[in-house]
Amino acid sequence: MFVSAVGGFSQPRETNFDGLDTFEGAVFHTARWDHSYSIAGKRVAVIGNGCSAAQVLPKIAAKAAFVQQYARSAQRYHERPNRPVTSLRKWCYEWIPLWQRYERLKLFSASDDLIPTYFAGDHAATQRAAMEESSRDYVHRTAPKEYHSMLLPDFPMGTCIRWMHSNG
User: Fold this and answer.
1) At what angle do helices 87-95 and 99-112 cross, to 10 degrees?
2) 125 phi and psi, to 5 degrees?
3) How far apart, in Å, do the first and last CA atoms of the chain sit?
4) How do residues 23-50 score in pLDDT, each as one tens digit?
5) Residue 46 and residue 102 share a domain
6) For all residues of the chain together, what is the average pLDDT?
7) Is 44 helix (H, G, I), strand (E, B) or coil?
């Protein structure tokens, strides 16, 4: 059996901008990470603010001397639903048959429930508004006030996805 788990965006989108051809530092995409290159003490620029950037930036910031992030536009940030694995949960995993599968099913179902958020209709609009509000609340709680205008999108949720699909 072969299972591909590379995700929907497994082919990195190549970037080209003025000056890239004369840049003398290392350049690589997060999907093609150069593990032989050390960022310790270096000045690092990260282009983009998607899921990969959200995952890699904290790690880079802990090692690099300076990090600058460049983004086309703000995006929605949501609190991660991560929870500690308590002794009770470990006990359940070990002694209650299929408990881990049940928790995984809940996680996938919750994610799948978000798909209609990007559709048309009253239910989707209500769901989108709730997600937008949740994102705003999260940014207001966790980010310094001076960054709110940079972090919070000024366009409705799902707008970029609809644009990408209609423009190839």
Assistant:
1) 110
2) -65, -40
3) 33
4) 888 998 888 889 999 999 999 999 888 7
5) no
6) 84
7) strand
Helix (H) or strand (E) holding 56: helix 51-63
Please state the separation of Cα 29 from the chain's center in Å.
15
**Whole-angstrom Cα Rg for the chain:** 20
CB 128 within 8 A of CB 157: yes
In a domain, 77, yes or no: no
Confidence band (pLDDT; 50, 70, 90) for 167? very low
Residue 114 and residue 62 in one domain: no
* Shared domain check, 159 and 89: yes
Q: Which residue has the tokens 């929605």?
A: 76
In this structure, the answer to whether residues 90 and 66 fall within a common structural domain is: no
Cα 109 to Cα 127: distance, rounded to the nearest angstrom: 15
Q: Same structural domain for residues 29 and 96? A: no
- Taking residues 127-154, what's their average pLDDT? 93
Most confident of 9-18, 28-37, 97-106, 118-127: 97-106
Which residue blocks in 2-158 are alpha helix, DSSP H?
A: 51-63, 87-95, 99-112, 122-142, 148-151
Closest CA to 54 of 77, 38, 27, 34: 77
Query: Residue 32: what pLDDT?
Result: 85
Range of the domain at 139: 84-168
pLDDT (0 to 100) of residue 17? 79
